[in-house]
């Protein structure tokens, strides 16, 4: 039993190889691009819209609502990144309904790449909102002694993002594979449904954590009012 799509290798030369994870990831990206192009090519602003556009508006509105709920008051600035994260992970996990399919999120290399994207996006949005110096000063809060701890926190939460998603998706695939070999009729159907639920939950958790990290980075501390009251 293969624990990761990384183990299925189609071509290798030295340290370089093309495995199932790489092929599936690029296939998913192509699928998302094509579906997006098809849905958005005939967008309308009147009352008569297609079902696809209606579904797209529901998804976009839902993502914007979640982003705003975290504390980012201009969700349109972040939906490109957060929405792409959610849709990629959700699509990758939902396709497990196909028996031959192995999600790329079951590979640590994929989840690490997604986590690194968040790691880069956090200072990007933080610097864009507050400026370089103001953002760097946040690592010295509440005192400069906290600098190494804040840096370790940045690295540890990135590692946690990658491990959490990888562990949940891989373990779900292993359970389904085991049950397929033992009881190939009833339990696999139930586990597939459970796997879909877990996959969607993991997509939501990953994207909402990324949103929380970005919100913390762009937050501008309020200046305290030090005006002294005068008593007569």
**Reading side by side through the largest sheet, how are the strands ordered?**
1-2
Mean pLDDT: 82
Give a quick account of the main beta sheet: strands, pairing sense, barrel closure.
2 strands, antiparallel
Q: Which word captures the global form?
A: globular
Molecular structure report:
By secondary structure, the protein is mainly α. It has one domain. It is built from 7 helices and 2 strands; from the N terminus they run ββααααααα. It has helices at residues 20-40, 51-70, 79-94, 108-130, 132-137, 147-182, 187-218; strands spanning 9-13, 16-19. Strands 1-2 form a two-stranded antiparallel sheet. Strand 1 and strand 2 form a beta hairpin. Helix 1 (20-40) crosses helix 3 (79-94), helix 4 packs parallel to helix 7 (187-218) and helix 6 (147-182) runs antiparallel to helix 7 (187-218). The longest helix has 36 residues, at 147-182. The radius of gyration is 22 Å and the shape is globular. Mean pLDDT is 82; it is low at 224-232.
Give a short synopsis of this structure:
The protein is mainly α and 232 residues long. The protein has seven helices and two strands; from the N terminus they run ββααααααα. Strand 1 and strand 2 (16-19) form a beta hairpin.
List keywords for this structure.
mainly alpha, disordered C terminus
List the SSEs and their pairings.
Elements: E1 9-13, E2 16-19, H1 20-40, H2 51-70, H3 79-94, H4 108-130, H5 132-137, H6 147-182, H7 187-218
Antiparallel strand pairs: 1-2
Helix pairs in contact: 1-3, 3-7, 4-6, 4-7, 6-7
């Amino acid at each position: 039993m293969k624990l990761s799509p990384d183990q299925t290798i189609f071509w290798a030369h030295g340290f370089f190889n093309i495995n199932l994870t790489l092929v599936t990831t690029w296939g998913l990206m192509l699928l998302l691009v094509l579906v997006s192009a098809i849905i958005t090519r005939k967008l309308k602003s009147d009352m008569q819209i297609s079902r696809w556009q209606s579904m797209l508006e529901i998804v976009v509105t839902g993502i914007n609502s979640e982003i705003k709920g975290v504390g980012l008051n201009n969700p349109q600035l972040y939906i490109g990144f957060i929405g792409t994260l959610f849709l990629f992970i959700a699509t990758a996990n939902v396709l497990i309904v196909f028996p031959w399919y192995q999600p790329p999120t079951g590979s640590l290399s994929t989840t690490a790449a997604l986590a690194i994207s968040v790691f880069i996006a956090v200072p990007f949005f933080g610097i864009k909102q507050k400026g370089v110096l103001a953002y760097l000063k946040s690592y010295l809060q509440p005192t400069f002694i906290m600098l190494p701890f804040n840096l370790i926190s940045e690295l540890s939460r990135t590692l946690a993002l990658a491990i959490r998603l990888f562990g949940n998706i891989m373990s779900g695939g292993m359970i389904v594979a085991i049950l397929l070999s033992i009881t190939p009729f009833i339990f696999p159907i139930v586990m597939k449904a459970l796997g879909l639920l877990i996959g969607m939950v993991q997509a939501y958790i990953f994207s909402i954590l990324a949103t929380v990290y970005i919100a913390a980075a762009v937050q501008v501390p309020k200046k305290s009012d030090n005006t002294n009251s005068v008593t007569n």
